[in-house]
Amino acid sequence: PNTRGPYVKPGAEALLDALVVYFGPEHVAEMTGRSRRLVPAANGNGFVHTSRAERGVSIANVNLTERRRFQNGEKLIAIISEAGATGVSLHADKNERNQRRRLHIVPELGWSASKVVQQFGRTHRTNQLMPPEYVL
């Protein structure tokens, strides 16, 4: 049984939940394969799992909505996983409102060099205002 709190989960899911709880879902654009996430309970007592899809957004479109909110500057933190990253561009595009330099944190490098390069390419593309900073 889990007796140590909401963060006692294996691997990446615990990290995702910790980031969403710490910064708040209103600041974190999550683009993953998850349909639910851990957030503080509305009454301030503990945590609850809730749908990632906001009212009026289908779960099928939640990653696209999150990407748009990040690129518009409505959310300043973007978290992507391999499951949610297909075709996603998160670079400081000259045509987007959010043109801040990207800080791309890589908590774990993949086993495939081509997948790692593809991951770096999410924040480093043509038509960018400035290149990202990478933290390994």
From TrEMBL:
Single GO molecular function: histone binding
Highest taxon of the lineage: Eukaryota
GO biological process, one term: regulation of DNA-templated transcription
Pfam families recorded: Helicase_C_4
One CC-aspect GO term: nucleus
Domain Strawberry notch helicase C: 15-136
Protein name: Strawberry notch helicase C domain-containing protein
Organism (species): Calcidiscus leptoporus
Lineage: Eukaryota, Haptista, Haptophyta, Prymnesiophyceae, Coccolithales
